[in-house]
Structure formats: structure tokens, C-alpha cells
Design goal:
It is built from eleven helices and six strands. The protein has a six-stranded mixed beta sheet with strand order 1-2-3-5-4-6, with helices on one face. The protein is rod-shaped, with a radius of gyration of 45 Å. By secondary structure, the chain is an alpha/beta fold. Strand 4 and strand 5 (381-388) form a beta hairpin.
Length: 408
């Protein structure tokens, strides 16, 4: 048992009780003028001296064999005191506690039994007769000592078990907090990557295309070049606004003070004005209020899909359709471009891009929706994002698969 302030205080109380009872035995022998009073005082002093050695030796506290030898020495001197005075029986009670505390359970019980038997025998010898009352005191004292020490040890073990549980709980909470922090950092990093790709990266790509068009128009078609440059400047203004609101963690500028349908309509109009692509918008169903996260996700998916169409599809027309379908809202982006094989998409690369589809899938999946991509070489591309009208938490998310199919 690891010593605690309480156990150390109890041990010192027991030691003081032993010394006090030895002093009482010696004092009574002198006061009553009993025979061999000097011998009683000498043996009591020797017993106190041998007993005092135990608390001063660290080895006695740390080693049970050393404690057993020390208790044997104390018991031997105490037995000599019992031969000289019946009052030495009183010392048996604190000895019970020392034996039970310092020795293993079986050895402690054996030592307590032997001490009680010695006390009863010595008391009966000094009285010259034996009665049940003579055995009752030492036996009852032994029983009380056993009950108290074992009860305390049981409480100590329970306390230690709870302490270990509390330490494990504290460590688990710390690990959980660390894991949650790490998960939060990763989630925020993923969110930032999606926002940057769907806003700043798309805008910069559009500006690059417009400036290339202006470069090709110069010097013969200065009016066309000026128009492309003006569109590039406006795209830069729009993306600067996106960046500022992105830093401030606000809603996209396209959704400020307007509906998702109006934002998608303006996106189509802007794409048509800036690029060689006719983008049309179509609304079906009765619009209902959507959570802000749903509106942002659908707008970003539309921006990313149209950006891919402008850069890669060489399409002449594209249609963006927003449909409210009972318990779901669906966004369709369809173009008549070159198409591709969905099963042979290149791996995302920081130099060449390729993060658009992964970002769209992550957005839709995070809200409990599905993303379907249908395309084939020479037959255009159709992308559908479907979200539930009510937000889905992680524990209620069902059917959050992302499907990719090739158009037959």
C-alpha cells in the first residue's frame, strides 16, 4: 500500500499508543511497588527502544521481510514484559494494527492470533486462573483490529481504483480533445481548400482566359480586346470581393440579399458575357427556404461545374437547372461539349489542377447528399447534385454516396 498522509498519521498514532501503554505499564509497576518493578521498567524501556527503531528505518516501511523481523523483535521483548507484568497485555491492541498493516494478510492473521494467545496466556498465568472473560478482551480487540484494518484496506483499494479511473478518464478526455482539435483543423483545411478552389482559383482562371482572348485580339481588334480586358477587370473585382468575404467567413457575395435562383441566373449571365459559352438557367418546382450551407454548396458546385465547362469542354451551350423535388433540391449542369471518360480522370495535381470534382463531392457528401456525373467522349457532360431539404447530421446521414456513371 502506498503511504498517504492519512496512513502515515494513523501509523504514528499507533506508535505513540504503544509507547504510551509501555510507559503506563512501567509507571504502574513503580507506583504500586510491585516486585521486579525495576525489571519491568527496564524491559518496557527496551521494548519502546526496539519499537522506536521501526519508524526510523525506511527499509522497515518498504520491505515486508524487514518489517517481519522488526515485529518479531518487538514481540520477543514484549513477551518478556508479559512474563513480568500483566499490564503488558494492553500493548497487544496496537501490536495487532502494526502486524496487520505491515505483514501480508495470512502472516498478519497468524501474528495477530499468536499475539492474542500470548496475551490471554500471560494474563491467566498472572491471575492464577483462567476464565472466559480473560480471553474475551484480547480476542475482541483482535477482531476489532482485523475488521478496522481490512475495512480500511478495502476502502483504500476502492479509492485507488477510482483514482486510476479518474486518471484514465482525464487522459481519455485529453486524447479526445486532441483528436477533436485535429479533426477540426483537417475539416477547416478541407473547407478552405474547397472555398479557394471554387472562388479564387475559378476567378483567376477566368481572368487568364479573358486576358488570352484580349492578347489574341490585339492589335487588329482593339475594341474586342478592350471588352475582354474590361471583363477581366470586373472578374478581378468580383473575386476580390469573394476573397474579402471569404476571409471574414461571410456568405458569398452572390447570395447577399438575393435568392439562390437569382444567384444562379446571374452566374449564367456572367459566364455567357465573359466566355464563348451560352449558359442558360432554368428553375423548376416551388422554391422553399434552404439552409445557408445548402445554398452555398449548390452555388459553389455550379461555379465549379461551369468553370470546368469553360476550360475543358469546348462547349457551345450549357444549362443550369435548379429543381425543388419534394424533400430534395437538385442542381443539374449539362453541356454539349467534348465530354470525357469518367473512369479515366487524371489524378489531382497542384500544377494542372483536377481538384474540382473532389471538392464538389466533398461538399455534397458533407450535407448528406449525392453527386452524379454522366459523361462520354463526344457526348457532353451532365452533373447532378442532390441535397435533402432538411440538414442531415452525421448520425442521420443515409445514402450519402457519390455516384459516377458513364453515359450509355
Amino acid at each position: 500500500m502506498t503511504p498517504t498522509p492519512t496512513t502515515r498519521a494513523l501509523a504514528w498514532c499507533v506508535h505513540l499508543l504503544v509507547v504510551g501503554l509501555l510507559a503506563l505499564t512501567a509507571g504502574r509497576a513503580v507506583a504500586d511497588g510491585r516486585p521486579h518493578a525495576g525489571a519491568v521498567v527496564a524491559v518496557a524501556a527496551a521494548c519502546a527502544l526496539v519499537h522506536a527503531v521501526g519508524p526510523l528505518l525506511p527499509r522497515v516501511r518498504r520491505s515486508r521481510p524487514a518489517a517481519a523481523w522488526w515485529l518479531a523483535a518487538v514481540g520477543a521483548v514484549w513477551a518478556g514484559l508479559l512474563v513480568l507484568s500483566a499490564d503488558g497485555v494492553w500493548v497487544a491492541f496496537p501490536l495487532y494494527f502494526l502486524q496487520l498493516h505491515l505483514l501480508p494478510r495470512r502472516a498478519g492473521l497468524t501474528a495477530v492470533g499468536a499475539t492474542a494467545l500470548a496475551a490471554i496466556t500471560a494474563f491467566a498465568a498472572h491471575r492464577g486462573a483462567f476464565g472466559a472473560a480473560m480471553a474475551l478482551g484480547p480476542a475482541l480487540g483482535a477482531a476489532v483490529a482485523v475488521a478496522v484494518v481490512w475495512g480500511y484496506q478495502a476502502l483504500y483499494r476502492e479509492s485507488e481504483r477510482r483514482r486510476r479511473l479518474i486518471e484514465e478518464l482525464t487522459a481519455t478526455r485529453a486524447d479526445l480533445a486532441t483528436a477533436q482539435h485535429t479533426a477540426g483543423v483537417l475539416a477547416e483545411r478541407e473547407r478552405l481548400a474547397r472555398e479557394i478552389h471554387d472562388t479564387l482559383a475559378q476567378g483567376l482562371s477566368s481572368i487568364q482566359l479573358l486576358l488570352r482572348a484580349a492578347e489574341r485580339a490585339l492589335p487588329d481588334r482593339q475594341e474586342a480586346a478592350a471588352r475582354h480586358i474590361e471583363q477581366a477587370r470586373q472578374a478581378a473585382v468580383d473575386n476580390l470581393a469573394e476573397a474579402r468575404r471569404f476571409v471574414a467567413a461571410l456568405a458569398p457575395p452572390a447570395l447577399e440579399g438575393t435568392t439562390l435562383a437569382d444567384a444562379l441566373h446571374r452566374l449564367c449571365a456572367t459566364t455567357t458575357a465573359r466566355h464563348r459559352l451560352t449558359a442558360r438557367f432554368r428553375l423548376t418546382g416551388d422554391p422553399v427556404p434552404l439552409p445557408t450551407a445548402h445554398e452555398v454548396a449548390l452555388l459553389r458546385v455550379a461555379q465549379s461545374a461551369l468553370g470546368n465547362t469553360v476550360r475543358h469542354a469546348h462547349a457551345g451551350t450549357a444549362e443550369v437547372a435548379l429543381g425543388y423535388l419534394g424533400e430534395h433540391v437538385a442542381l443539374d449542369v449539362v453541356d454539349d461539349g467534348a465530354g470525357f471518360d469518367p473512369g479515366r480522370l487524371p489524378e489531382p495535381d497542384p500544377g494542372s489542377g483536377g481538384f474540382g470534382l473532389a471538392a464538389m463531392r466533398a461538399r455534397v457528401d458533407a450535407l448528406g447528399g449525392t453527386l452524379t456525373l454522366v459523361s462520354a467522349p463526344g457526348r457532353g457532360t451532365a452533373l447532378t447534385a442532390r441535397l435533402p431539404l432538411s440538414p442531415a447530421g452525421p448520425e442521420t446521414r443515409t445514402g450519402t454516396a457519390t455516384d459516377t456513371e458513364a453515359r450509355p
